[in-house]
Design goal:
about 240 residues; mainly alpha; 10 helices; about 75% helix
Length: about 240
């Protein structure tokens, strides 16, 4: 006799999927209220392995294109590297989501460049992602549901309680504005270079404004969040 599926085996809802995605993200490695550590910051950018997987393909494109000026090897060798990273993770049975995402992004970038015959088109997906991210953040600020507040609410388990607490709401709104600044800075620097067709300069800008700027923003966000969550946590024993 077959019965209805057990409630524990039901498919996760949209909210549960969002919560799981947040905890797997870089910011998910940041524990609100705790003292920032270099080790945790490294985990937030994917660990040493994730750092290499994020930087090496872009660096390979820059070096190969600068030395040869040839489009085909400049886009295919980074794609091959990304595939090697995925294979390595599958063999080691470690999480490969980030590596798969990297392959997809590099493959789309390579396809656009090869179809147009212009190396600068390799950077279109990155520019689009930054523009969309900036738009989402600005919309969240306009409707007074700042993205960083939503993420921290998930990580702390407090839900949206921060919206009723003035101090937390201000800090989380400020942190969200800083992330808007990150994506805006990338667009301000990269888009003019894209229009000018400055391939090498654009590749350098993407590297410098990529992981280093992201890591710095995670650190600043962590410190801002700790300014309210850490202080309140320390005050609890006294109360």
């Amino acid at each position: 006799m077959t019965g209805s599926p057990d409630s524990d085996e039901r498919a996760p809802g949209l909210g549960e999927q969002f919560s799981a995605a947040v905890r797997r993200s870089g910011l998910g490695q940041v524990a609100p209220g705790e003292t920032p550590t270099a080790r945790s910051l490294l985990a937030a950018v994917g660990g040493a392995r994730g750092l290499v997987e994020s930087i090496l393909p872009g660096l390979a494109f820059l070096v190969i294109y600068t030395l040869t000026g040839l489009l085909l090897p400049s886009v295919l060798i980074p794609l091959a590297l990304a595939l090697v990273f995925v294979a390595g993770r599958l063999i080691a049975r470690t999480p490969a989501t980030q590596a798969f995402a990297g392959v997809a992004g590099i493959a789309i970038s390579a396809a656009l460049a090869l179809l147009s015959g212009k190396a600068v088109d390799n950077f279109i997906p990155g520019i689009v992602i930054n523009a969309v991210s900036l738009a989402v953040i600005l919309i969240s600020l306009a409707v007074r549901w700042p993205v960083i507040g939503v993420i921290v609410g998930v990580l702390t388990g407090d839900g949206m309680a921060w919206r009723t607490q003035r101090g937390r709401r201000r800090v989380l709104t400020l942190a969200t504005w800083l992330w808007a600044g990150l994506f805006a800075a990338r667009l301000v620097v990269e888009y003019p270079l894209f229009l000018a067709g400055e391939v090498e300069a654009l590749a350098v800008a993407k590297l410098l404004l990529g992981v280093p700027l992201y890591a710095g923003m995670v650190w600043v966000t962590w410190l801002l969040v700790r300014a309210v969550y850490g202080r309140e946590r320390e005050a609890e024993p006294a109360a």
